[in-house]
Amino acid sequence: MKRANLTRQRLVLLAMLGGLLFSFPIVGLVDGVVLGLPAGYLYLFGVWAALILMAARLSEGGR
Amino acid sequence: MFPTAIVVLISLAYLGLLFAVARFAEQRAAAGRSIITPSLYALSLGVYCTSWTFYGSVGRATSGGLSFLTIYLGPTLMLLLTGVIVKMIRISKAQRITSIADFIGARYGKSYWLAGLATIVAVLGIVPYIALQLKAIAASLGILLADPAAGQGFWPTLAITASLAVFTIWFGTRHLDATERHEGMVAAIAFESIVKLLAFLAVGLFVTFGMFNGFGDVFSRAAALPGIERLLGLEAVKPVSWAALILLSGLAIVFLPRQFQVMVVENVDESHVRRAVWLFPLYLLLINLFVLPVALGGLVHFQGAAVNADTYVLRLPLSQGAEVLAMLVFLGGLSAATGMVIVETIALSTMVCNDLVMPGLLRSTWFSAQNRRDLSGVLLGIRRAAIGVILLLGFIYFQAAGEAHALVGIGLISFAAVAQFAPVVFGGMYWKLGTRPGAIAGLSGGFLVWLYTLLLPAFAKSGWIDPGFVQSGLFGFSWLKAQALFGLVGLDEISHCLWWSLLINAGLFAGVSLATRPDADEAAQAERFVDVFRLEARGGAPRLWRGQASPEALVALLERFLGAERAHGQLAGHAQARALSDWRRLPADAAFVQFAEAELAGAIGSASARVMVASVVEEEPLGLDEVLDILDEANQVRAHSRELELKQAELEAATGELRAANARLQELDRMKDDFVSTVTHELRTPLTSIRALSEMLYEDPKLPLADRARFLGIIVTETERLSRLINQILDMAKLESGRAEWTTSSIDVGTLVREAAASLEALFNEKGLCFSLSIAAGLPPVLADRDRLTQVLINLLSNAVKFVPQDGGHVWLSVVSVEDAVRVSVRDNGPGLTADECGVIFEKFRQGGDTMTAKPQGTGLGLPISRQIIEHFGGRLWVESSPGQGADFMFTVPIAAPDA
Amino acid sequence: MAKKVLIVDDEPNIVISLEFLMKKEGFEVAVAGDGEAALAQVAAFQPDLILLDVMMPKKSGFEVCESLRADPAHAGLKIVILTAKGRETEVAKGLAIGADAYVTKPFSPKALAVQVKQLLEIA
Q: Can you tell me the distance from the alpha carbon of B608 to that of B817, in angstroms, rounded to the nearest whole number?
């Protein structure tokens, strides 16, 4: 139970981090073209993938 | 391009495949080998992605650029709040919740009104969304057949609708109990999720790498289009709209009836959520990866042509003659649409049946007339009819709306409708003070605002109603302009609606809740919802029921609604849980009544179940104060039991200590007993010789002189032995009781050792042994009692002498300084000791040399006394030896501290 | 013909006194210092009675008594257990394993002589 709670709290923190990274003004700062692709496209998918990776490690790791 | 027959055949074959998947899952479930794995659960959440995603995302991307992604970022963030989701699941399992409306109704005192209201909100919000799916299927069919009429015609779409209805009825209403999961449906939905993902990835790869040369090529060629920067960058996005959409979609992933169905009602195991937390967002990411490339590819490819961007996904492959791929895309879209329609309709039909129809039915005269009949069939009939009616409504809406705005923009409008559940659900899960009037006020307030600011304006835009209230405000009041309420301008319609509806909803909910008092049922349910984890941890909710019930009436009730077979099965399970072999012997107590009510709730919803149970038992209504008392009591009992637990733990610890102490005492007692017995034996032995010989001397005066002298000699030695023994026993007793007198002084061990050795020289010579003495130079003085230390030395030396062989005996005595002590070693070349003997030799009356024929002379107290003495000085006495290697007795005495 | 008595004890001084006493009473006497020697002497010396100490090295008096009683060849042998341990449980144990008498140390030589004679039916 304790362990589950800790994981849940970490995930909430991750959600807050995600909320921040997916919001303005941070999202608005991303501009231009990187590696031939729009920076916004790369940024959103990159942050998204990172969040998913961290969620997977937090949620299923260590059990 | 495709013959109609082929397309219809393939579509039917695909639906047949879904049937097979579902059937397989159901058979496995029936056999107790469920195929619902954590990953399958996560995939079933993919029902979120409807045809609105499958076809619509590309369309949204061509007008709004990256902002289509917000619809998928919200759910990603929401799923991270696993605590909320798990709590929702736990509550729903405990309460046998059948739908989101049931959840809301159950929380606020199992209220008909609230559950009904939530049902109306859901139906009104969702029916247009179902219409959108029908439209998508029809439109994609039209494109595939290159016959727009086929997609829009009345009969073809009615046929599609009808087959979907049949399909849904088969999936959703095979069993009555809605809380009993539809594993077949879940498996089919997960399968459809895979199909639509593969289809979309396939078309994405085809466009990006087949029609273009990879991502870079798509983007660079699109960059040449006029006004394209707006779609590629994020600068043009309105921050408020962006955030509002993330919030909205985050709420929708929980509150859309179909999402609540798969995420909560169909959940098999809470731990599956752990997988869904990341796998479902990953699914969303993958299905969106190619949306922008496909959108841009379409824009580039169909440049100038008037092609609806919503159809790019299908038209791009067709434009290249990739017919197989187009067919796959069609099946993907079909998956997206049918999945949504099946689950959504099942969820809505459950709500309509349990929360709208049943309450009316239970009060009708018809129902009273059917008093004894098995109603499970009737219930199934209602559900099936509800499925048909909902789909029919969807069909009618689709026919009426056509291409109108009221259909195209409906996705977000539906989201905004179900978002109205947020305050009462979240408030209900975490805030005990929320009341039924508060919930009704909040939900209806939010719903009305939604209706006025979003749905009706959509109707107006479609030209169905007079748009005056949008353009100039209701009755001409400009502050009532539907999409600039109270003068709030500058927001898009969704953000505007969300702001006002949630503000008014939450405000009314909180305000009215605080202004009203909950009744007994509400207070009890509030406790059960908010404290679900705590209550479960201590074995269930307090039994808030009092009255008289007859088991027969309850059983009859269950038989009526569940059917006799199922009812008996469930009753048997309940009886077994209570360790009764036969359910007919169940007592009609609170536990039974609550079990019956929960079972009924699974079939007809909690509000109806409450009414039905109340109708067959004589309840003594509990007042609010009483309920609060019971809850409070439960709290007190909880506190008490915790205190008791602590006390008990203390008692147990104390008992344990006492038991250990007792065991120690018994051991000591036994040792004392053994000691006394041994001492007696040791004393009696010399006494025996003395008595026997002196008596014989006394009895027989004519004994020869030589015998007399011999006997008297023995008597003298035995007397000496006796007194030595007595002295040592006394000495031992003194040492052990701490009453020995010590004269401590600073001692040079070297000198002491020499003196002791000198005093035993005669003994050494007598035995003819070789004695070696080695004393290290510059030994520091130690603090000890001179006489006692000498006693130890002499004891060890005489022991050694006793054990060395008659010829070639050797005793070594050495003194060295080690760290902060002086170490003395007395070594001999006697028979040595086994490891066991090394330990016991220091016990009282344990004499070495048990293996020897002759008993060595000694009292058996020398070594124990020596050890006591050495330990008194703070040193250690031990022996190192092995059989045949002689024995080395060693002791240390700590060096005197400089200031001592 | 003189009856034969075997004295078994590991205390030399007790052996001396018992040996003297028994010889004085006219018995033929043999001596053993421990349990194993006792068994060997029983075989070689064929005593009519054995005075058996309990606490001895190698084999205790109880063990000697038990193994003698297990052998039918020594059915007629009288066994007197002689010990410094006088606790009731030990007396009971000694008699239970087939001793004919149990004498606690220290003993009166006169009384012991009488008891030995009684056992050997020399009135």
A: 93
Q: Over the stretch B648-660, which tens digit does the pLDDT of each residue have?
A: 888 888 888 888 8
pLDDT-derived band at B155 (thresholds 50, 70, 90) equals confident
- Name the amino acid, one letter, at B286: L
* Helix ranges restricted to H, B482-550: 493-515, 520-530, 532-537
* Contacts of C27 by beta carbon, 8 Å cutoff, 6+ apart: C2, C3, C4, C5, C116
Distance from CA of B809 to the nearest CA of C (A): 24
From C20, C37, C106, residue closest to B691, measured CB to CB: C106
Q: Nearest chain C Cα to B715, which residue?
A: C13
Tell me the per-residue pLDDT of B412-436, one tens digit each, with 9 for 90 and over: 888 999 999 999 999 999 988 889 9
Q: Is A52 on the interface with B (CB under 8 A)?
A: yes
Contact B414, B248 (CB under 8 A): no
The candidate with the shortest Cα–Cα distance to B817, out of B782, B779, B790, is B779
- Mutate: best of C15, C16, C17, partner B, most B CBs <10 A: C17
Nearest Cα of chain C lies from the Cα of B766 at a distance, in angstroms, of: 21
Q: How far is B873 from chain C (nearest CA, A)?
A: 36
Count B/C contacts: CB-CB distance under 8 Å.
80
Do B168 and B385 form a contact (C-beta atoms < 8 A)? no
- Beta-carbon count within 10 A of B710 CB: 15
**Burial category of B375 from C-beta neighbours within 10 Å (exposed 0-12, middle 13-18, buried 19 and up):** buried
Domain boundaries, chain C: 4-119
Residues B707-716 have pLDDT tens digits of 889 899 999 9
Q: Do A28 and B80 count as a contact with CB atoms less than 8 A apart? A: no
pLDDT tens for each residue of B45-72 = 999 999 888 998 898 888 888 888 999 9
Write down the architecture of domain C4-119 according to CATH. 3-Layer(aba) Sandwich (3.40)
Q: Quick one: which of B376, B319, B372 has its CA closest to B604?
A: B376
- Is residue B250 over pLDDT 90? yes
Amino acid at site B891: F
Predicted ipTM of the assembly: 0.94
Across the range B482-501, mean pLDDT stands at 82
A51 in B contact zone (CB under 8 Å): yes
Q: B31 burial class (0-12, 13-18, 19+ CB within 10 angstroms)?
A: exposed
Top residue of A23, A29, A37 to mutate, by most chain B CBs within 10 Å, is: A37
Cβ within 8 Å, pair A59-B281: no
Residues of A within 8 A of B37 (CB-CB) are none
Whole-angstrom distance, CA of residue B608 vs CA of residue B382 = 15
- What stretches of B691-843 adopt beta strand conformation (E)? 744-747, 770-775, 782-785, 810-818, 821-828
Residue contact B685–C14, C-beta within 8 A: yes
User: B699: closest CA among C12, C106, C14, C17?
Assistant: C17
Chain C partners (3+ C-beta pairs within 8 A): B
CA distances from residue B34 to B41, B179, B272, B290, B459 in whole angstroms, order as listed = 12, 16, 13, 34, 46
